[in-house]
Amino acid sequence: MIEATELSDLLADYTVPFLGKKLGSTEASFQAEEHDNNVKIIITLSFPMDIKFLEDDIRKYLSGLEFELLKPLNFEIKFKISSYGNTNSQPISGIKNIIAIASGKGGVGKSTIANGIARTLINFGVKVALLDADIYGPSQPLMQSISGEKATSDDGKFINPIIKDGLQVMSIGFLVDEKSAVAWRGPMATSALLQLLNQTKWDEADFLIIDLPPGTGDIQLTLGQKIPVNGSVIVTTPQEIALLDVRRGIEMFKKVNIPLLGIIENLNLFTCPKCGHEEPLFGFDGGKSLAENENIQLCGSIPIDRELQESVDKGDYNYFSRESKTQEIFKEITCNITAKLCSLGKNPKSIFPEIKVEKV
Fold first, then answer.
1. Whole-angstrom Cα Rg for the chain
2. Which pLDDT does position 359 carry in this prediction?
3. What is the DSSP letter of 96?
4. Average pLDDT in the 180-186 region?
C-alpha cells in the first residue's frame, strides 16, 4: 500500500494544465494527507480552472503509474487569487485584477467573448465583475438580461453595480436612457469611463473584465495611462482586413506597457448542421498566424455557433453554464488567460504600501 509521502513524490512530477508548471510550484501548492478511510490531496491554485477537469486529469495521470492505492482518493481544490503583474497605477478598491478585452476593429464579437470569459470565471467559483467600457454603444445590459435597469447609490457618491447571478455589472447603459444617443466628445467619454471604474462600489472581485470599445483612441489610451490594467486580451477574426486593425491594437498595448495575455480568434469555422462539413467562411488560421508573428499565445479559436449568437441576443447568459463544444473552448481560453496572468508574479503595489520620504 502506498503512503501519502510516496503519493506526494509521484504528484510532484505532475504538470498542471495551462500553467505548464509542476504541482508544488509557487502557483500550485499541494499536500497529501492520509486518513483512516481515505487519502486526501489538497491543492491550492493561484488561478481558477474547472475543478472536475483537474481532478479527472490527475486521476488519469496516476492511473498510468504502477502503484497500488488501497484507500479511496479524495480531492480538495481551492483558489488563492492575488493581484498579478506590475501595473503602473495603484489598484482599484475592491478589485484584485483587471483584464481588458480589446480589438482594434469592431464587429469581431469582443463583447460576446468578454461576457463568456466573465461567466466562465463565475462558473469556476471566483468573484467576478464586468465593466462595459463602450460609452457610445453599451451591449452588456442586453447580454446580461438587465437592459432597462438603473443603477442606484446608497450615499450619492458611489454607484452600486447591478448583480446578475453572481456577476457584478456596470455600464453607462444603467445611467442613461438606452434609446438616447450618447453624443460626447473624447474627453467626456474618458471621464465617464474613469467614473464608472472608480466610483462603482465593487465587492472584492478577483477579476474585473473590461469590455472595451473598438479602436485605439482616447478611451484605450486612458486605459493604459490611468487604469491599473493587469493584462489585456486581443480578439480578432481570421480575415486579413481584421488582422490589420488588430495589429494596431497590439502595438498600442505594447506602447503603454500592458502585458498581452493572449489572442482569441473568433468566427473560426462554420460547421454545417446537416452534413457536418466545416468551412472557414472568414479565412483560415489568421489568428494563429498573428499569434506566431507577434510571439503571443493563441488562447483559443471559437467557431461560428448559432446557439451562442441566439443566446447572446436573448440575454441568455446561462449558455455558458451548459455543456457544449463551444463552452469547452471558453473554459480553455479562460484558463489560458488567467494562468498566463498569474505567471507574471504578484503585483508589488498590491502588497506593499507606498512610502514617501519628505525633506524636513
1. 22
2. 52
3. E
4. 61
Q: pLDDT, tens digit, for every residue of 34-53?
A: 888 889 999 999 999 999 99
β-pair type (231-236, 260-265): parallel
Number of H helices, E strands in the chain: 10, 15
More confident residue, 356 or 187: 187
The C-alpha torsion from 288 through 289 and 293 to 298, rounded to 10°, is -10
Q: Specify whether the CB–CB gap between 332 and 300 falls below 8 A.
A: yes
Model pLDDT, residue 134: 85
For 265-276, the pLDDT digits (tens) are: 999 988 888 898
Asked if residue 213 is part of any domain, the answer here is: yes
Distance CA 197, CA 163 (A): 16
* Spatial separation of the C-alpha atoms in residues 32 and 40, rounded to whole Å: 6
DSSP string, 10-52: HHTTPBPTTT-SBTTBTTEEEEEEE-SS-EEEEEEESS---HH
Q: Which of 19, 49, 79 is the last residue of a domain?
A: 79
Evaluate whether residue 239 is within a structural domain.
yes
pLDDT at 355: 47
**The residue type at 125:** G
Question: Does residue 66 sit in the same domain as residue 113?
Answer: no
C-alpha grid cell, residue 211: 469590455
In this predicted structure, what is the pLDDT of residue 135? 80
- What lies within 8 Å, CB to CB, of 7 at 6+ separation is 32, 39, 41, 69
Number of domains observed in the structure of the chain: 2
Cα-based torsion angle of the residue sequence 129, 130, 131, 132 in order, rounded to the nearest 10 degrees: -160
CA distance 47 to 27: 8
Question: Is residue 244 one of the residues assigned to a domain?
Answer: yes
Q: Which of 118-122, 169-173, 281-285 has the highest mean pLDDT?
A: 118-122
Residue 87 resides in a domain: no
Task: Give me the pLDDT at residue 182, please.
Answer: 63
d(CA 236, CA 248): 12
Q: What torsion, rounded to 10 degrees, do the Cα atoms 194, 195, 196, 201 define? A: 120
Single pTM value for the model: 0.92
Q: How far apart are CA 207 and CA 282, in angstroms?
A: 32
| Domain containing residue 340 | 95-349
C-alpha 260/C-alpha 250 separation (Å) is 8
